[in-house]
Amino acid sequence: MSDKNTNRNVSVCASHEVKIDNFSRTTLSVDSKFLEYMSNNWDAVPSEPATVHEVAPYAAARRAKVSRKFAAKRLVIAAGIMKQRANDTFYMFRPHTSFTHLTGWGANAAPGAVLVFDPVASCAISEDTATTADDVAGAAAQCDSMQHTVTLYFAESATRYSKEFFDNSEVGEFWIGAKPSLKQVSTALGLNCKPITEFQSTADDVTLDNAALAEFLDELRLVKDDYEIAQMQLAVNATGRGFDEVINNLDSAVTAERGERVVEVMFHKHARTAGNWEGYDTIAAAGAHACTLHWITNDGPVKEGELLLLDAGVEVESLYTADITRTVPISGRFNEIQKKVYETVLEAADAAHKVARPGIKFHEVHDAAMAVIAEKVKQWGFLPDNPDPELPYHRRYMVHGTCHHLGIDVHDCAQARREMYYNAILEPGMVFTIEPGLYFHPGDLTVPEEFWGIGVRIEDDIVVTEDGSRNLSAHIPRTVAEVEAWVQSGRK
User: Fold this and answer.
1) SS3 for the chain, per residue?
2) Which residues, 6 or more positions from 134, have their beta carbon under 8 angstroms from its beta carbon?
3) How far apart are CA 383 and CA 447, in angstroms?
4) Rounded to two decimals, what is the model's pTM?
5) Which pLDDT tens digit goes with each residue over 358-394?
6) What residues does 326 pair with on adjacent strands?
7) pLDDT of 90
8) CB 195 within 8 A of CB 391
């Protein structure tokens, strides 16, 4: 990595909060003559003309809902800043979910950007400033659409005609390349854009630290619009191809000392070429590691005769992510116990999908899956003698929930109220996972030893439709026959 020529007393950059001091290894001394030399003899480089992005009208509709809810309030929605990894290296930047949802600016969003809702003067009336209740009602009637002017502030990259071009590794185009201009972003997103230097915070700003705002913005994402559902399908399709990539390289995983890393890397390669990144850390769990729900160390072997549980999702450029899990027999064929467990999990998943439709409660989808798990565990004789009817013994083998909302976040809408999430009535446009599983840890004395080390999860992404639900990932092999043929084809 190249040296970064910064002065000892560098002010904190808008894109992060870390003071970087590379004075001890600085090699370039900039005087007026060198600056003049660097600022001349540049030919104009044509740039691509900006066009309106398809997300723009959808994001505008979302902003209008926020504006109506928080009339007379100045809202400041920050994209966030880069997180330091070590000294002057940073983790890949990802903007705050609510910022992306309200702007439509995804993977290429500028660190340090801020979306500001400034109240329109004629609408800036509330119970505190009104003289009568009629004043409040009248103002609301006049301002039934946007009650704010909305501005996106961010730092443009420094061009060839400034000192920062070559002397500032945070914004200089010599270092970071040319980025979209204020005008280009304004056109693409349909937003008024200004330099970040013009942004001024106030003591009355309502930010994402405000619980009421954070809650509302998360609940705003509970029902997806047409653009979002299309992006979800795009992410699911890319994820399916990534799973194919893994299956087609299982031989190399089996022969590697840390075969789980091979699985992880194969999916990562696809996620980076087909999308922006993974939507979350890939779980590549072979053998008994599949019984660890969030196994992300991925340093174990991939052995013939065992199962591989792959839980992964591609995050596309808009930052919408899939969340898919498939459990496959590494040798290409399930043994009898593996098949028994797998078919039970599949039955639970299908039962949950069957009930998912508008009008039922979110938790009823989970309940349908758990009813299958509970009955099978009972049939297999895993319950103790004289069981307590109030004790959910089957949850020993599946402690997690069956469903969670999905979108820009893998666990989307997490700050929504429980009555708007777990106890909510399903509506068309809701997107969530269905992911039952069974996990029999080694040494579990409540089950026969032949079950030890078997972990199975099947996870699909579901969108609620007007008259039922649609499995966005139904094309990725699910049945025993489909999965076995998939693996056998990939290992030829």
Assistant:
1) CCCCCCCCCCCCCCCCCCCCCCHHHCCCCCCHHHHHHHCCCCCCCCCCCCCCCCCHHHHHHHHHHHHHHCCCCCEEEECCCCCEEECCEECCCCCCHHHHHHHCCCCCCCCCCEEEEEECHHHCCCCCCCCCHHHHHHHHHHCCCCCEEEEEEECCCECCCCCHHHHCCCCEHHHHCCCCCHHHHHHHHCCEEEEHHHCCCCCCCEECCCHHHHHHHHHHCCCCCHHHHHHHHHHHHHHHHHHHHHHCCHHHHHHCCCHHHHHHHHHHHHHHHHCCEECCCCEEEEHHHHHCCCCCCCCCCCCCCCEEEEEECEECCCCCECCEEEEEECCCCCCHHHHHHHHHHHHHHHHHHHHCCCCCEHHHHHHHHHHHHHHHHHHCCCCCCCCCCCCCHHHHHCCCCCCCECCCCCCCCCCCCHHHCCCCECCCCCEEEECCEEEECCCCCCCCHHHCCEEEECEEEEEECCCCEEECCCCCCCCHHHHHHHHHHHCC
2) none
3) 9
4) 0.90
5) 999 999 999 999 999 999 999 999 999 888 989 999 9
6) 310
7) 83
8) no
> Cα–Cα distance between 368 and 374 in angstroms, integer?
10
Query: Contact 95/105 with Cβ under 8 angstroms?
Result: yes
CA angle 41-43-44, nearest 5°?
A: 140
